[in-house]
Amino acid sequence: MPLRFYNTLTRREEEFVPLEPGKVGMYTCGPTVYAPPHIGNMRTFFFSDLLRRYLEFRGYEVKFVMNLTDVDDKTIRGALRDGVSLNEYTEPFIDDLFHNFDQLGIRRADVHPRATHYVPQMIDIIRRLQERGLAYEAEGSVYFDISEFPAYGQLSKVDVSAGRRGERVAADEYDREDVRDFVLWKAAKPEDEQVGAVWDTQWGPGRPGWHIECSAMSMQELGESFDLHVGGVDLVFPHHEDEIAQSEGATGKPFVKYWLHGEFLLLEGDKMAKSTGNIFNLQDLVERGVKPSSVRYLYLTAHYRSKLNFTFEGLAASAEAVRRLRGTRNRLREHPAARDPDPADTPTLHTAVDEALAAFTAAMDEDLNTSVALAALHRLAGAANARLEELGARPISHAEQAAALAAFERMDAVFGFIGLADGESQVDEGLATWVEERIAARQAARKSRDFATADAIRDEIAARGVVVEDTPMGARWSLAS
Ligand SMILES: [Zn+2]
After folding, report:
1. How far apart are CA 443 and CA 165, in angstroms?
2. Segment 275-322, tens digit of pLDDT
3. Which positions make up the binding site?
4. Annotated binding site for Zn(2+)
5. Band of residue 163 on the pLDDT scale cut at 50, 70, 90
6. C-alpha distances out from residue 89 to 95, 113, 115, 186, 316, Å
7. Do the two domains 21-262 and 311-415 of this chain adopt the same fold?
8. Cα–ligand 1 centroid distance for 216 (angstroms)
9. Three-state DSSP class for 256?
10. How remote is the CA of residue 236 from the centroid of ligand 1, in Å?
11. Fold type of domain 311-415
12. Per the CATH hierarchy, to which homologous superfamily does domain 21-262 belong?
């Protein structure tokens, strides 16, 4: 069965055929590094991580590029407000982003280009557009002339006739109704100078518009034509429409073969937005005791093109599912195995393994149908539990055990939540060892009547979110809720 994706460009599900057999070039619009990412942003990054992992599962050699928007209206505004340079402003948000990725098991891209490092490539594209009569200067800025590019609107299907010839928009973000010539290069303003976001060009000092950044970074890293472009559904217009116009306008070649867009996340039924304060970061959840592995599982329960309603009830159910699946994997791993088992015993798990892997692949091939693929893993776990129960104390055949464990591992190489939960429990165990050791040190300090040290150790333990209670049976500890 072929792998199929829903392509926003054609509004159809299509068989995936990469430009070069066996290889995939893939670009995701990364975050604007001006705020910590919320769990809605993280859903998009999780989606590109899932896509990349599944392409690798299918044997493709993937080059995955995710940019960091470190110069645009928002970052400049932030740097100005904090009275720091653009670099000083964005750096902590970049560190925080990668910390969020690590916590959620989102693997780093092969390249994370920063817009500020690709300005010469942006200038070059703008120069080519001008040479081809697709861009014009106005008051030190350069704009894309959409009336000269008949294919404008092909991705977003916006009504181009609604745009009035020669009218311009200089903001990085604008509405779907606002079909006008968009800015490629912005003449420097005093605030740009103040934060060090100015480059000298043939058009005078200035800085790039947001859309040109992605055209430059993606083509520099993946070539003028590449396979997959991913982003949130809110980027279809104007951002991705403008990327196509810039890239195809400059090169005369098709830019991207498949456009994939991930849907929004709702928080208890409402759209998450910074503007309304209805918002959660991963850190907020972790502070409430939520394990990132259950967030990852929850993301998988909805198709990427559907809105996902994020609820604490759903999160609790996800945590339980992760616990059960990982528990089964652990029991299977720990069950004694024999190289030459009882000849009267039928190793029934082999069939379940084959069926699960086939069902998983078929579901994921169908535009990454993760909820159906998850059901395949649950069925395998059910079969494994039944098999272990049937065996009781008898050993399992080594080959049967290895096949079932390999199937868990293969599916989790894509899903990623069991591996993530393994890491989380190691942290728990590490914490437990540390707390026990500190409690013993505190007891010793008290015994020698060094109460200052004992109190200092108690504070040190409390700082890790652990509450110690002294009982007649000795000290007991628990995680603060
Ligand atoms: Zn982009």
Report:
1. 80
2. 777 789 998 898 888 999 999 999 999 999 999 999 999 999 999 999
3. 29, 214, 239, 243, 274
4. 29, 214, 239, 243
5. low
6. 11, 17, 14, 21, 36
7. no
8. 10
9. strand
10. 10
11. Four Helix Bundle (Hemerythrin (Met), subunit A) (1.20.120)
12. HUPs (3.40.50.620)
